[in-house]
Write a structure and sequence with these properties.
Chains A, B: InterPro entries: Alpha/beta_knot_MTases, RNA_MeTrfase_TrmJ/LasT, SpoU_MeTrfase, tRNA_m1G_MTases_N. 2 copies of one chain form a homodimer. Chain A has about 270 residues and is an alpha/beta fold. Chain A is built from 11 helices and 7 strands. In chain A, helix 1 (about 25-40) links the parallel strand 1 and strand 2. Chain A starts with 16 loop residues before the first strand and ends with a helix. At the A-B interface, helix 1, helix 7, helix 8, helix 9 and helix 10 of A face helix 1, helix 5, helix 7, helix 8 and helix 9 of B.
Chain lengths: ~270, ~270
């Protein structure tokens, strides 16, 4: 999306670690870093990657998420990668015959946030491109996190799974939904100005004969007023709409005047 | 992720339409379809794609999301693509100087679900790979939806943005907490009728000389449309407002005709 604001610095706040177990493609490490960066995650750990690190393809695919790539740590085993964490979740799409609680991303994020807020560290395990996580890796986790996908069409790749978890973490962490920009609505105008618009319009419509009969007028007026009121018009918008009414109402006057001015100019010219 | 359960059928439940405006790369159409399929979305509409449809690259990238690709509809303009919808959101990363409410994905999803539960149709606009949506496209929407991304590292591509919205839709839909419709409101008219009102008004204002200069016209049009769009006008209200425009616009014609008829009547009378 065209939207990067490069003027802002990044703050390395406490956040869940993302652990990729034996990632095969360097590109997927890069797109994972990039997905993380969108939502403020930065702690990326890779376990026994297929290719040596640093990895050109990963760096290229990470785009601007250098601050994540620079901090990547490589481990020989998943046990070492999660050694310092107090809470570990395993992300998996397939059902596992295991005595593990299963959470959706929202609950998973909430639980991680509680732990992190309490000064503990949390992390999420993601598996291999083709085979996901092995059972013994899932067994190391406190719980399974899975996504509410349509069973017949589950096709999340690693970066997408990381993106969803990162997004939910951001959602839950900023429960007030911190958006990069907020509502672009000017304040609603004082009721007095709205009524001014109503009266202007209704006076005009009385002159143009819009209200067919006197007894129908009150209902028609109420309905028009209700429609405009719902728009929560600002002062500027009311001013513009009154200009619209005037422009249409008085066009024939302007055109009449222009025609008369043109006539007068012609008459003056023919006299010369 | 290795997790597809092919034994399950897909049910085409009411869900938001995903509208891609002038997608450049066929691959992105395919990955969008695939992202949608994860969370049960199936109504994909593309507006004036760069390449002809069907598109080999899109089909290849869609993987198993055939049921989405098969239902893709192609439109020449965004107006046609959203004609049947009552609620339209525009997804954008950049701030727009426009009188539009801004929601995060969660609130956006909740609002779409309310409308859909009430029998109306909703849709999300996504822009071009490099340039996102044009202002006049955003102006056609009821509100903007944006993602809570780190401003310095916003790098969501189209499929990721679609994935997040699809995920939130699924999240909110499964909550079972459908916000009740505001009592007493007629359903919002399909977007096509609202656009009819816009064109009627703008054509009239072109004739009356409301738009002082050509370069100011686009912004003024967008602002007027934004004001009317917020009112969530019903079919009847749109009809009434078009009657209002006609009444004011053509009053001088009626008055002119009445004056001529009165003259003719006087002339006839004086002959008797």
């Amino acid at each position: 999306m065209a939207g990067t604001d490069k003027s802002q610095e990044f703050t390395f706040r406490p956040s869940p670690a993302i652990i990729l177990c034996e990632p095969q493609l360097g590109e997927n490490i890069g797109t994972t870093a990039r997905a993380m960066a969108n939502f403020g995650l930065w702690d990326l750990r890779i376990v026994n990657p297929r290719d040596p690190w640093p990895n050109e393809r990963a760096i290229a695919a990470a785009s601007r998420a250098d601050h994540v790539i620079d901090k990547v740590r490589v481990f020989a085993t998943v046990e070492e990668a999660i050694a310092d964490l107090q809470l570990v979740f395993a992300t998996t799409a397939r059902r596992r015959d295991m005595q593990k609680p299963v959470y959706g991303p929202e609950e998973g994020a909430q639980r991680m946030i509680s732990h992190i807020a309490g000064g503990e560290k949390a992390g999420l395990l993601f598996g291999r491109e083709k085979w996901g996580l092995y059972n013994e890796e899932v067994a190391l986790a406190d719980a399974i996190v899975t996504f509410p996908v349509e069973a017949a069409f589950a096709s999340l790749n690693i970066a997408q799974a990381v993106l969803l978890m990162a997004y939910e973490w951001r959602q839950q962490a900023d429960k007030g939904e911190v958006l990069p920009f907020s509502g672009g609505l000017d304040p609603t105008a004082p009721r007095e100005e709205l009524i001014g618009l109503f009266l202007h319009l209704e006076e005009t419509l009385d002159r143009t004969g819009f209200f067919k009969t006197e007894d129908k007028r009150p209902t028609m007026v109420d309905n028009l007023r209700a429609a405009f009121a719902r728009a929560q018009l600002s002062t500027q918008e009311i001013r513009t709409l009154r200009g619209v009414i005037s422009s249409i109402d008085r066009a024939h006057l302007r055109q009449g005047r222009k025609a008369r001015e043109a006539e007068a100019a012609k008459a003056t010219k023919s006299k010369d």
